[in-house]
Amino acid sequence: MLYHLLYPLSTRVGVLNVLRYPSFRIVAAGLVALLVGLLLGPHFIERMRKLQYGASNVREDTPEAHKKKAGTPSMGGALILLAVTVSTLLFADLSNRYVWAALLVTLGYGAIGFWDDWLKISKRNSKGLAGKKKLVFQVLVVLAVYYGVLTDWSSFHLASGFPWVRVGSYVDLRLTLPFVPTRFFEPNLGWLYLPFMVFVIVATSNAVNLTDGLDGLAIGPTIVSSMTFLALSYVAGATIAGFSLAEYLRIAYIPGAEELGVFCSAIFGAGVAFLWFNTYPASVFMGDVGSLALGGGLGTLAVLTKNEVASAILHGVFLGETVSVILQVWSFRTTGKRIFRMAPIHHHIELKGWAEPKIIVRFWILSIVLALVALMSIKLR
To answer: What HEC string does the chain produce?
Structure first.
């Protein structure tokens, strides 16, 4: 918004010329999101505490030690979404489709999470929205954004006497692999890319949701991922003196992807602000409004920056948590036995005697290492 309102005035007010540069707006977005989160956090937490008085906000499938957390306000993800939205709208180029796609998926998933959290609060239980309904709405949000924002309908026409839609996509339908140069292997998935895209976004969203079980456990890797995608989106779209960074690195060139750096920076700033209140012992929980939204946003970034497969490395912590749940369910249904004491795996480690802060920090460290591996894969391409 500021880019569109103030940059045209740069011919008269020279200092406003800085808004021309994505690098400046990326830094500014992160700082503003951080300030919004820190300044509004205490008031927001107090309001949530009064609103949710008497509600447990602790999942039933958690260790007994977590019962002491009952009464801690939830839905802190709404604060994250507010900071991300305000900062992105202020500093991003709002004519960029990729920015709108990432923001709308994030807000759409946030709405699903809000509905889920509100049902838990209003009904005073931890069930919330049925899992199948969540999945259906998550898929619908991605499809709506794909066809509403990322599809070029200018080629719509009628053929052979009946409706036949031929449209273009603003999403690159090619598949890229980490450690493999795009010039060697870059298959075009065609219509198969859409279900693949839906899978990546929905799976990432639910993986973050499963990870959100300890104070600060989910937001830490989310912050790391946001900074990693900031770098990935910038090199995918930026040009310096007419020279494409993507061409040099032999990765997919995506014109306009550098604007996603503003959105990534906003997540980083809002995430750090939330961590201020969510660090052990937490003053507020993220809730599904935060975990589903942030996971949806990260999944969308993976798709738009052509790092769908590489995101499995970057999001290794989220992936490991999800796999532990899948294995636990499969083992119990087929053999009647459990592989882990409790799933997701962070609860298994907790029940083995590890202190909660130790688990959290070590998962953060693992997330940083995996992010470095994901970034290294770019250079090796």
So the answer is: CHHHHHHHHHHCCHHHHHHHCHHHHHHHHHHHHHHHHHHHHHHHHHHHHHHCCCCCCCCCCCCHHHHHHCCCCCCCHHHHHHHHHHHHHHHCCCCCHHHHHHHHHHHHHHHHHHHHHHHHHHHCCCCCCCHHHHHHHHHHHHHHHHHHCCEEHHHCEEECCEEECCCEECCCCECCCCCCCCCCCCCECHHHHHHHHHHHHHHHHHHHHHHCCCCCCCHHHHHHHHHHHHHHHHHHHCEECCEEHHHHHCCCCCCCHHHHHHHHHHHHHHHHHHHHHHCCCCCCCCHHHHHHHHHHHHHHHHHHCCCCCHHHHHCHHHHHHHHHHHHHHHHHHHHCCCCCCCCCHHHHHHHCCCCHHHHHHHHHHHHHHHHHHHHHHHHHC
Size (the chain), residues:
381
Distance CA 8, CA 20 (A): 10
Half-sphere exposure of 140 (CA within 13 A, CB side): 9
Tokens 């990729």 identify what position? 98
Provide mean pLDDT across the span 281-308: 96
Q: Is the Cβ–Cβ distance between 300 and 198 less than 8 Å? A: no
**Residue at token pair 């209140």:** 277
pTM of the model: 0.93
For 296, counting Cβ atoms within 10 Å of its Cβ (0-12 exposed, 13-18 middle, 19+ buried), the class is: buried
User: What gap in Å lies between CA 88 and CA 79, rounded to an integer?
Assistant: 14
State the burial class of residue 242 (Cβ atoms within 10 Å of its Cβ: 0-12, 13-18, 19+): exposed
pLDDT in tens, 85-122: 999 999 999 999 999 999 999 999 999 999 999 988 88
Q: Write the pLDDT tens digit of every residue in 199-213.
A: 999 999 999 999 998
